[in-house]
Amino acid sequence: MTIKRIDCTEKAKNLIAQLKTKHGELMFYQAGGCCEGTQPQCFVKGGFYLRMNDVCIGEVEDCEFWVDKDLFEYWKHAHFTLDVLDGFGAGGFSLETPLGKTFKIQYRIFTEEEEKNLAPVKYA
Questions:
Q1: Can you list the domains of the chain with their CATH numbers?
Q2: Region of 122 on the Ramachandran plot (φ > 0 left; ψ -120 to 50 alpha; else beta)
Q3: Pfam families annotated for this entry (predicted)?
Q4: Burial of 24 (0-12, 13-18, 19+ CB in 10 A)
Q5: Tens of pLDDT along the chain (124 residues)?
């Protein structure tokens, strides 16, 4: 059984559905820098220009979830769970911001058994 690298909570699923209704197809990007880079950002699909070697770790609700290549190297042994918090995050470019919401990632380290069966990633 292949182990997914990313999942999302029900709250995130509901918010993604709401954003898809308004904006159409979406994508996520998480940079490895400070400030808004530490939070996943939601964009209209194609609304963020990927850099060479950025990594798609999977999809949530049919939306690709991309991470900075350096962030992936640091967190490649961790499972990501996309969640939502009330309030404004450090950024302001993510589509959920006007709704008073902020996407957030929760991490946990994969078990040794999970590491043997991880879903493949794709590179930009």
A1: 6-47+54-113 (2.60.300)
A2: beta
A3: DUF779
A4: exposed
A5: 899 999 999 999 999 999 999 999 999 999 876 654 568 999 999 999 999 999 999 999 999 999 999 999 999 999 999 999 998 766 668 999 999 999 999 999 999 999 999 999 999 9
